[in-house]
Each structure stands twice: as structure tokens, then as C-alpha cells.
Amino acid sequence: MIPEKHDLVLMKVMRGDEHDLQAIEAIHQSSPLALATLVQRYEDEMGAAIIDPARLRGHFLTLVERLFPGELDVVDQRLRRRRK
């Protein structure tokens, strides 16, 4: 099976290497990602990730900043509210 593009991006975000971020940017340029879908899936599916939650959150926010720079503060605030 081939993962749907938003799921593939979230898999790459877990590692967060520069190479992964460049691949994500290429995916986004070729077939734009929906920020709402990324955020919703991050919230719904990444809670059980095996890496440190703060590190994963940082990787995800780096991705948002690179692909949707004008939306970084909104997404950051949404994730902060969710943690409480």
C-alpha cells in the first residue's frame, strides 16, 4: 500500500531531517497539501508516536513554518490549547 500524501508527510515529520523536509516541500509543490488536514491528522494520529512529544511538535511546527509561514502562529496556538 502507498500512504496518502498527508500521512506520508507526517511519517517524514517524525524524523524531521533536512532531507525529509525537502522531500515534503517537493510533495507540496507538486500536489499542494491541505494545512487543515495536516493539523487534524497530527492531532488525531500522532499522540501515540514513539518519539518525544515536544520534539515531534517542534518538527511539525517547522514543517508548517516552511509550507504555510503565515499560519504558524495559528497552528502553534491551536496545538497549545489542545495540550491543556
Description of the structure:
Helix 1 crosses helix 4 (53-67). The chain is globular and about 35 Å long. It is mostly helical. The chain has one domain. It is built from 5 helices and no strands.
Summary, kept brief:
By secondary structure, this protein is mostly helical.
Write the layout of secondary structure elements.
Layout: H1 5-15, H2 18-30, H3 35-45, H4 53-67, H5 72-83
Q: Number of folding domains? A: 1
The helical percent reads over 70%
- What is the N-to-C succession of helices and strands? HHHHH
What is the overall pLDDT average?
Answer: 92
Class by alpha and beta content: mainly alpha
Fill in the keyword field for this structure.
84 residues; mainly alpha
